[in-house]
Amino acid sequence: xxxxxxxxxxxxxxxxxxxxxxxxxxxxxSVEKKGNDITVGLLLPEKENKRYExxxxxxxxxxxxxxxxxxxxVSYANAEADADRQSKQLGQxxxxxxxxVLLDAVDAQAIAPEVKKAKDAGIPVIAYDRLAQGPxxxxxxxxxxxxxxxxxxxxxxxxxxxxAGSKVVMxxxxxxxxxxxxxxxxxxxxLQGKVNxxxxxxxxxxxxxxxxxxxxxxxxxxxxxxxxxVYSANDGMAGGVIDALKAAGASKMPPVTxxxxxxxxxxxxxxxxxxxxxxxxxxxxxxxxxxMAVAKVQGRSIEFDALTRDKVDSPTQKRIPAMLVPVVAxxxxxxxxxxxxxxxxxxxxxxxxPYRSACAAIGLK
Length: 365
Description:
The chain contains 14 helices and 13 strands.
């Protein structure tokens, strides 16, 4: 996926384009317009990342209800990292004749045949968080290359004047997830030529235990004292990386990155074992996804187009209407203006007994 342009047309122009069938991704344009009595299918990929059950699903469910005077429903299924299971789940939603599907793909390529079946059945499919292949109607996620850039810049900042030639391990996400490739691309754009990337892994299923096993290999090869920093693509894997470093007797923890602002990661940042995470407003992403789904089903093209002013490409489709939500670095000094300000967590959530003194040291009371 690459970001190709930003649509800047005025509302009147958007209306005329919509009338001509320019927007909407083909098959979705023939969908019968619905009222408030609608069913939104929601397919999420896994439960290792706690965000999906804690934030995405409940936020989308609440927003769909709010937008439909409590008449709309969300039909939810989680694939638990099983691509075959997710294909069957989407097939079931097609059989159940849901009105629209929000799809966060386990395997972007493997799900494409089922996406086509949905489109053939007149059911619009909106790719959520990960860009699925096939004839999708729209895509909403974060600026994923920027995520990698933010993580890499944090490593460079942490290394300071010792950055040149420093030995860095890269713990990337699953190679079945197109987002992982984008995170890696963004990170490499900042790291290459500045540090020495001594080991790089694509971590199966994003699982922390797989990241931990990879890190054990890296430590055995490079030496725990020679690793200057670890690029970890998300917080769950960062936990596995840190466990491996501790088990190897690291006297001082090197900077370790993450993503998703998991509660455990925020606590590790407070305590100093993890250097940073990337905060992504799940509330904004999930609320907007629900708005896109409801507008698409209800035939409100102008509202739908206003929410999808970016354009992205997938391997099977060009210029997909999209929204890319911005991201920010989460470090000790930005906890207040990120997860606390947006009420993702409270101080009490973060500053449990083992972290109280560390919280007090950075002004979290």
